Amino acid sequence: MFNFNIDDEAFKAFKYELISEVKKELTFQEEIFKTSEAAEFLKISKPTLYKLINSNSIPFIKIGDQKRFRKSDLLNLGKN
Predict the structure, then answer these.
(1) What is the pLDDT of residues 30-45, one digit of tens each?
(2) How far is CA 22 from CA 8, 11, 14, 19, 61, in A?
């Protein structure tokens, strides 16, 4: 395998940094909404949400024939 010569302090610093990054990735989970949940979150009707979808005004993910919405995308609407 690999043979690295690293002093203990450098190894501890590297290990701490690596563990911190892994923990961040493991604890972050994007909240995903169904159509009705997205409409409720945005405080709009489902027909209004469908109008936004059809006009490509709102980002969504297609899973099969269903649409899903990332919470972060909904929170960023209108910021561009």
Answers:
(1) 899 999 999 999 999 9
(2) 21, 16, 12, 5, 26
The model carries a pTM of 0.62
Annotate the chain with DSSP letters as a single string: -------HHHHHHHHHHHHHHHHHHHH----EE-HHHHHHHHT--HHHHHHHHHTT-S--EEETTEEEEEHHHHHTTT--
Could you identify the residue written with the tokens 């009707």?
45
Domain ranges of the chain: 32-75
